[in-house]
Amino acid sequence: MKEKINLRQFMILIFINLLGTAVIFLPSIATNFAKADSWITMVITVVIGCFVICWYTTLFIEGGKQNFFVIIEQGFGRKGGFIFGFLFLSYVFLNAVANLITIGDFVSVQVLMGTPSKVITFIVLCTAVVGVRYGLEVIARSAEFFFSFIVISIILLFLFVSPKIDIQNVFPVFQMNQASTFVGIIPILTLTYLELIIFLGIMEQVSNKEKLMRGYLIGGIMGGIVIFVVTFLCICVLGVDATIRQTYPIYVLGQKISLADFIQRIEGIVAFIWFFTNFFKICISYIVLAKGLQHFFRFKSYKIFIVPLAFLIFYAAYEGFKNSYYIPEFINSTYVVISYIIAVIIPLLLHLSLIIKKLKR
Amino acid sequence: MNKSKWNEKNKKKNKLTSRALYNEQLIKELLGNSTELVSKQVNLEEEESVTVVFLYMNGLVSQKLVQEIILEILLIDIGEAVPILSNKTKSKEDLYHELSIIANELTEVETIIDSLINGKTVLFIDGKIAAFSIDTKGSNTDRGVEQNTTQQVVRGPKDSFTESILINVALIRKRIKDPSLWTEQMVIGTKTQTQVMIAYIHDVVNEDLIKEVRSRLKKIKVDAILESGNIEEFIQDQTYTPFPTVYNSERPDAIAAGILEGRIAIFIDGTPFVLLVPVLLINFLQTPEDYYQRSDIATLLRCLRMLAVVLSLLTPSIYIALTVFHQEMIPTRLLISLAAQREGVPFPALVEALIMEVTFELLREAGIRLPATVGSAISIVGALVLGQAAVDAGIVSAMMVIVVSITAISSFVFPSYNFAISLRMLRFGFMILAATFGFFGIFTGLLLLVMHLSSLRSFGVPYLSPFAPYNSSDQEDAIFRVPIWLRDNRPKLINQKNIRRERSWKVNHKK
């Protein structure tokens, strides 16, 4: 029996994936470029992101609404498909590893001081293995279950932090850094909407494909709004300088909470939001990775790849992580290049070749 | 090989003859001369004496009924309007005639023994190579319908099921007077021959569900079924899970409500606990009383139970995580007082919590097993072990006592005992996770727990629905309990046909 997820679950997964790493890194990266105008950068990113989403959906429909790896083989032929498919898979692999590293780093630096990040990585990976073995349906359902809690936590965070807002921090609006406001879009897009290309790998399992675009867009816009609000709050509450200086500005945001002298420092909320969104992000990458391997090696079940992949991912996370400073460095340089190659150029080529093949017929 | 030969030989031997006394001896031998097998001989007053032998199992039959039947069958009725029995026995032909109306003729020895065991009276008559069985079942082992003991309510019917399957089914029939309430019977257990009945409303229930239940019940191959728990273990979807995927209740109104929603009830003879499938996680947090109280009260109580789930599962682990790893999250003054309390305690928080939790679990278990007369002893001792004395002795901190008490109280909130046990088990896992990884461990545990829950199914229905997969129309009876006149639909995932409930009342209401 083929596992199916419904549109709502798909939408929630998109939302959660957008928040994943983004919610914790983006404020600092965006502010680094655009300073007080980084919220404008966010707005523009969301608008561009919507176009990206529409494009990915059209690509999926153009390819005949089937398994993305089949679409790749259709577009590039058997051998070409193999090469490009593996390029895509390596990107997915990188994504899984990077998310795992950030989760390990975040927890060991901010939550559990003294616990080596490798241990955290290992625990999260083991949990992910359990999740992926249960399959996409279970992951989607669990995400659906946690969705309401994540939304409630986000709203609580906004509410609790709102008394600390100092609107003076956003002024002057769009007076300085005009160029870098737009330049900032480039790395931010890679961390948010371009990562959604991974979802092409599971799109064929959505039961209601007619309204696919709608679910994709709603999830994308919802996630975009949350990221925008978080950035805005960071600038307003922490100020530009502090936002840039902090690796995890949103966590500092949580620490600022103080209500009635009792509800203080509930950065646990932030940790909750971030841990859960990031976990599901890892799970989705992991499952797409396993499914891709299953397709290219023509296996009946993807479950056989899960444990070997876990070793690979753990080793990559173990060796790839040098120190905390390496992560933003990586995000701002190598990752941008890789992202644009895999998530823009390859789909573009694929789309072109699909159209050409269609015209030939 | 050997066994089948023996069976064959035995079969040849176990043939009825035309002699009633011989047949009696045969049955007695086959039942191992059990003492409760009662036989009575009567000779018919005819030219050559014809012997009639009555056999029945003492205790399984109603004595009064047997006596009446013996007299009524044997003696000539000389009354006109009202039967008045003379002191003369009937002739053989009249007897046959009478028996052909009220009795079943049996020729197989096995079926004769079966009917004896099922509380029937068996007659052998000279000159007939057969037996007649008359239903005289009326055991005095049945207790009457009494107040239920496991799921108490403040408001609502107080009756409960009994050990007799027929009374149980009748209790349901009394509530649902609909011809489409169908029952099916089967016998499970080669030795116990336990009667099992499934009941459902034919035009509401999902056909596939009935088929599934039927096939799962038929697959059971076991010698003994003593309680519905035995059946539950055979038919549940997954064995290795701490969560129950079959609902059981002693309350006829709960089972009737389930049947009306399109579920299937499974009655088992010999136990007052009736099973209901399929069941969702949320059903274990609902009581029948929710529907008898006003809807706002019921909703509030359900929210309270949700809170109780979180508290009974996580309170000790959150305490451990906070005191060991995340002191910065505790408000400063509370932290100082906590630190002062813990100063004299020689154990780490996990050990402290484990000591108290295990002590409490021991007390609870002891409380269940203890006879009521010594029950007060346990509460005195319990108050010492879990109370101020433990704090004064310097073994645990006062805060820990409060934590354990909160956990204990909230684990008594659940209407369903087996669900409370699952949470009790998981709590220890969470405590260990919290002691090793703090909140990170708790989060990981929650993820694993929710993933496990969403992988569960009860007869094909996702266990976590209507939350995951989300179903907006079923939300009206999940956490919220909307007023009954607003509740139009039966749960969607359970039955696909005849989803709408009748709404005539609402029309009247709106007028």
Automatic annotation (TrEMBL), chain A:
One annotated Gene Ontology cellular component of this protein: membrane
TM region(s), chain numbering: 12-33, 39-61, 82-107, 119-136, 143-162, 182-203, 215-240, 269-289, 301-318, 330-356
Keywords: Germination, Membrane, Transmembrane, Transmembrane helix, Transport
Pfam families named in the record: Spore_permease
GO aspect biological process, one term: spore germination
Location of this chain's protein in the cell: Membrane
UniProt membrane topology term: Multi-pass membrane protein
Highest taxon in the source lineage: Bacteria
Family statement: Belongs to the amino acid-polyamine-organocation (APC) superfamily. Spore germination protein (SGP) (TC 2.A.3.9) family.
Record-given protein name: Spore germination protein KB
Source species of the chain: Paraliobacillus ryukyuensis
From TrEMBL, chain B:
Keywords tagged on the record: Membrane, Transmembrane, Transmembrane helix
Transmembrane segments: 264-285, 306-325, 370-389, 395-414, 426-453
Subcellular location, record wording: Cell membrane; Membrane
Residue runs in coiled coils: none
Topological category with respect to the lipid bilayer: Multi-pass membrane protein
GO aspect biological process, one term: spore germination
GO cellular component, one term: plasma membrane
Protein name per Swiss-Prot or TrEMBL: Spore germination protein KA
Top-rank taxon, per record: Bacteria
